[in-house]
Amino acid sequence: MADSGIGYFVQERRAKQRTQVMKKALMFFDGQRDVFTCVVHNLTNEGAKIELNGPRVLPLDFNLSFDNFRTVRSCNVIWRENELVGIRFRPSCEAGVA
């Protein structure tokens, strides 16, 4: 169990161990010219928890880059709590990436 920070413990239910990273990333959406920054709090090969720095409205599907667009990951929103968002990385074949 992990301390929630507000006086009670929360049981960890995730099967995959998260890597804490606190790294900036760039996100963009289909039909949008703007690029937004976010902070990646933790990461696995299958998804991440990010904190939004800009958009109040976030589409369910968007793209994320950790390396200034050398590579891009297609993502789906799994959950959202205010500015924190849980995302799943779509497999390359599902995202239409060669």
Q: Which descriptors apply to this entry?
A:
two-stranded antiparallel sheet, Thrombin, subunit H, mainly beta, six-stranded antiparallel β-barrel, 8 strands
Question: What does this protein structure show overall?
Answer:
- With 98 residues, the chain is mainly beta.
- 4% of the residues lie in helices and 49% in strands.
- The protein has one helix at residues 92-95; strands at residues 2-3, 9-10, 19-28, 36-43, 47-52, 61-65, 73-81, 84-89.
- It has a six-stranded antiparallel beta barrel. It has a two-stranded antiparallel sheet with strand order 1-2.
- The longest helix has 4 residues, at 92-95.
Question: What strand order characterises the main sheet?
Answer: 3-4-5-8-7-6
N-to-C CA distance:
41 Å
Determine the mean pLDDT: 82
CATH architecture: Beta Barrel
Q: What is this entry, summarized?
A:
The chain is mainly beta. The protein contains one helix and eight strands, in the order E-E-E-E-E-E-E-E-H. The strands form two sheets. The chain has a six-stranded antiparallel barrel.
Write the layout of secondary structure elements.
Blueprint lengths: L1 E2 L5 E2 L8 E10 L7 E8 L3 E6 L8 E5 L7 E9 L2 E6 L2 H4 L3
